[in-house]
């Protein structure tokens, strides 16, 4: 007991005060009562005292305030304080009875801790249905804050349609006072703050206290369980009404479930098959697979879309697709199996018909493509190996092509191209471009000029957004030189025995069809015996792989192959097997062409002559001397005559200097005359009184082959005689 005056000075304390706060009486008397108040409350304590002095009402013990005392040793403890005003002649005195409630608070905290630790929402109400206590789970479940529930009727949490009778149910329970366990067969619902309802289970427990009856309600949300129960019922109905046969079996293969569709499929009623072994449904030659499947299922493996034959009650055979999976106990142990069986007889028949039709269409399409691609001619002295694989997707028709064009005078043109896209449209564009490219190449034009002309051809096709990659190379065997122009095509590789593989240097040009592109070409000297490797993107652009990585793999493969001098056919097969190991797994057509450079001529000589008449006999003399040294005098007369005609044309109609180049191989003699005039000679029939016009007629008649090709400086006219 502590008595203070209106200034808050302690006037009187009893022995219990000394024991409670740890002070001696003389340490308290005359000191402000704030000495016994924790520091954090002292600032406002004077205001509270003044407020009480103005009010002067008795305040009973435990008036709902959270109060604390401060001992001499600095420790705090919870207290309840009752205040009583005392009017005296000396003024107002206030008597404060202070009670230490530490034990009670500890007990309450333990009770609250247990309440908060409960997995369910806990609500405690008195006998009037007023909510006295809730835990955090209640707040989470119903969406209310704790202070929104305490002191309010529990009907706040009951849907409106049930509230009328809820008070009667409460009164009935108060008279009965029996523990009611969870899930007592009642359909109960809760109401959240947002107005939504949800199914609940509630267990009730009566609590007899000195203050009267309290009822503890544990509330559990069973929305998920109810939904699961509904789903199970729905699935059971679906299984029974399924159009697929569904059956269940024990691990030793005895049937335990058989739906209506199984009866329709197999012809057996449920009564006939229940308890029977599932091998009843398999033809004798297929019963071993039942054993294998059951072993897989016992090991926990799921078997999906297993296609096989099954036997009906009437003895007929069915094509079926079966999916099987193991059923498990709660601890994961496999206890049985289930199977879904679908009749695929119609599908199998349709697949067989489609396969025949597809093969017919594919054969027609590939025949069309091969006819459009043509068959490149065999060129004497030029070793090649080529491979073409149609796409495995669709009809297999694509836009790949390649061509070998004999240009004469020991020169060969090599073409490869790829029309973007697949199908008959790409193949049609390919066929037109291949024919155009072949015709253009035969004129002897340079690679960059051919690309320029092909770009115009693509534009004239009037196919929207059509792009074509193409590469044209001209091989000059006597000089060991390759001239190349690439229109956006993948790099050509050079594989040299003992040196490995590398890319052939070439300017980067846009694909055909872009338009307004000035195409560039370059020339490079290639060592004798080297092989040019040309290919389309189907070889290295495969799904799930990086094109740079695939190109590096191709280069490495070629380097390994050309450590020596391989057979080109074997090399082509090895490249395909390495880059495309899955023969049926590429969705674009693939073209691969290996071309080994021809051997250099046995002998070759060159001289330059001025554009004057004396150059004609000088050129003949140079030719005679070379033929004598090469032991080729058997063609000397024809060679001199033809050279005279060609040189005379150059002297009369062109500009000098005139280049004369002679080349001899094991089989022929080639004579080339180059001048500085871009005008190409045209053979014509001369009139009887004309002296000119007969030269080219003689060349055409006597030479085994002849031609004219444009050059950067003018043109070169050539003819060949077989030895």
TrEMBL record:
Per UniProt, what is one Pfam family of this protein?
HATPase_c_2
In this chain the PAC domain maps to 63-113, 184-234, 304-356
Keyword Hydrolase on entry: yes
Which InterPro entries is this protein grouped with? Bact_Sigma-Reg, HATPase_C_sf, HATPase_dom, PAC, PAS, PAS-assoc_C, PAS-like_dom_sf, PAS_fold
Q: Which GO terms describe its molecular function?
A: phosphatase activity
What GO terms in the biological process aspect are recorded for it?
regulation of DNA-templated transcription
Where in the numbering of this chain does the PAS domain appear?
A: 1-38, 107-159, 231-301
| Annotated keywords | Hydrolase
Q: What is this protein called?
A: MEKHLA domain-containing protein
Give the originating organism: Streptomyces lunaelactis
Taxonomic placement: Bacteria, Bacillati, Actinomycetota, Actinomycetes, Kitasatosporales
